[in-house]
Design a protein that fits this description.
The protein has 228 residues and is of the alpha/beta class. It has seven helices and six strands; from the N terminus they run αβαααααβββαββ.
Length: 228
């Protein structure tokens, strides 16, 4: 009975982690496609070309003045490097469809964890917000999603600020990849901005980066893979 209970718990944890990174590991890339007579939208082929072009690369590799991808730097890259007719506002629609856009805390949890996350937001999050304000730091929510229809598979790691600013990178996933230390440091920027990072269930604590600068603090969002 003990083994069966352990197996059941492992199954629930595995399902919850897949849900957190995009509903059984997949989030559709933008489905809009190009409609006749509608300017500034991408065909499916152009969208996949854009995803593949930035996979594993940061904006500074293309002499863009940004540590991580944002709507604006992605629009600049798409226009100047690929000749794609899309602006920053239109790219926001694609980022939302990839699962990179802003989400409510309960949307970052599976159905089993959502009530616990809602209690955590009421009880624990205000203290994190106050600490960030006291230190002149920013609060960001970190997570990842798997993009559908990409070959090889692609994953988006994103950070959404409390004000809704989106920063992200596209990677080729491996089995249970850790949260990239480089992503966290780039989010802080060359000036070393203070950060309070809320990390969803995509990564257990054992996969968090270690020996980070003191101005970066990591906080776990409750999930089935952690003690609730």
């Amino acid at each position: 009975m003990g083994v069966a209970l352990k197996d059941a718990r492992n199954s629930v944890t595995s399902w919850c982690r897949r849900h957190t990174i995009g509903g059984d590991g997949t989030v559709a890339a933008a489905r809009r496609g190009q409609r006749p007579g509608e300017p500034g939208t991408l065909s499916r082929e152009q969208e996949l070309e854009l995803i593949d072009a930035i996979r594993g690369k940061h904006p500074d590799a293309f002499r863009l003045d940004d540590e991580l991808w944002s709507r604006q730097s992605l629009a600049d890259f798409a226009r100047d490097q690929l000749g794609l007719p899309v602006d920053a506002d239109e790219l926001g629609t694609y980022l939302d469809s990839w699962g990179v856009g802003p989400r409510e805390p309960r949307e970052r949890a599976c159905g089993l964890c959502a009530p616990v996350v809602e209690r955590w937001v009421r009880s624990a999050y205000p203290a994190i917000e106050r600490a960030a304000q006291d230190h002149g730091a920013e609060v960001h929510w970190l997570g990842r999603v798997r993009l559908q229809g990409t070959l090889p598979a692609a994953e988006a790691i994103s950070a959404i600020s409390a004000q809704g600013r989106i920063r992200f990178m596209i990677t080729t996933p491996t089995v249970d990849p850790p949260l990239p230390r480089d992503f966290v440091l780039r989010l802080s920027g060359p000036a070393g901005a203070g950060l309070h990072l809320i990390i969803d269930g995509s990564w257990p604590k054992g996969e968090w980066p270690r020996r980070l600068p003191r101005h970066i603090e990591l906080h776990p969002l409750p999930s089935c893979g952690r003690r609730l």
